[in-house]
Amino acid sequence: MKKIILVLLLTLTISCSDDDKTDKQLLENDKKQLVENLDSYKVATYKFGKILIRASAEKNTISPEFQSFKSDLDRIFNKVVKYDLEDPESLTVLDYISIYRDYKKMEDFIMETDEDIFPTLIDAFNVVYGDSISRQREYLKGEEKIYIQNIEHSVLSAIVILSKDLGKEVSLYECSKTNPELLPDSEIKTLLQYIRGFLFYEKGLYYLSEDEISRNIDWLNNNKKVDLPYTRAMFQWGNLNNEQTHIGFHSLNHLFRGFDRLMMERKIDEKRALEDFEMFLKDAKEIGLDNEIVWSIETYLYLKNEDNEKAIAALTKLKTSKLLSSEDREKIDESIEYVKNRKPGEVLNSIYDKYFLSKIATKYMFSILSKIDWEKVLKEQNVPHTEEIFETIDIFKTLVENLEKYSSTEILKDTGEEIKNGGKSLWNKAKELAE
After folding, report:
1. pLDDT of residue 94
2. Can you tell which superkingdom this protein's organism belongs to (predicted)?
3. Where are the domains of the chain?
4. Concatenated DSSP letters for 209-278?
5. What is the pLDDT of residue 13?
């Protein structure tokens, strides 16, 4: 009987391992994990701000529940949209507590409502900031609306990822709202998928990331002559012609698909990762790319192939990278010493492991994103109300930060006298919210 139980437990353990799961099953697991990652206060209050703007332009009822909150949404929107970034006191403690009270009242509605049922941000900004002609313009509908709101979500996901106030959680939310599959095949679509792939990778959703990037690689392989001006601008490859730009972007897609697969648990995934890294190096060398990310991958492959001399040469070059911290350089020194004394057949140890490699790749990609002047890019593409869009993002940062700050019981106590002076009724309501 004991032997039977042992066999059953062993069978169950094996059946539950990642090695036994299909790509499709693991992708579905990531989709569930994505939904769980979006369940946060920061995402909820940011979404509240987005709905305030988009719902302000809504002319239809949509639903009885929306109609019951419409006047509150418009009142809060009118207060927030007039906020002066140069004068932080233009929204007081009382204002934030009042807004928080209203938010709590409609919190379930906010969380359950898809913001994409409302007009696009561009339409909403036309109503608020546009001239008389813009205000009379019909709202985007159908495929055109889907296209524009996908672009809006994607651009916002890239812009806010570097923000310390909004950052990765909000970026992931915007990323989850982007659906490149609904866009026609184009350079814009492949860039959106690349950004989504990187964000999913950075959040540890490796199978979602792999899925995005694999579709990108297929498209690039089937469209080798397509013009890629936006890609050239995004990666600041002004010195490359179109063919070289195609190779460069192809290499970066293989690079991050390789990282996705390296971070997975199955043996087949590591084999696939090595194939991706080899393709990355082949492409990189073809266009003369020689930087820290190339040296990192070279090191990894040289170590795998037990070519110690070349591994040490690559590590020595990697040590010169400005992306690395002093702690990172110390790890590289340790790695060099390890490789010098490494015995044939000895497996890689944790000195130069996949997590350190992943860290370098992430820093590399963030360094690229941080150099993009998104406001300039949008203006060059004649996106209307670009300045207002960026001002609104700054307002969102302040709104999210202060709603979180003034919803704290301790903060409410610290500012108690100020609130009491503003009105006893509001103070009592604020205390109720803190309980």
Report:
1. 83
2. Bacteria
3. 24-183+385-434, 199-281, 290-372
4. HHHHHHHHHHHHHH-TT---HHHHHHTT-TTS-HHHHHHHHHHHHHHHHHHHHHTSSSHHHHHHHHHHHH
5. 41
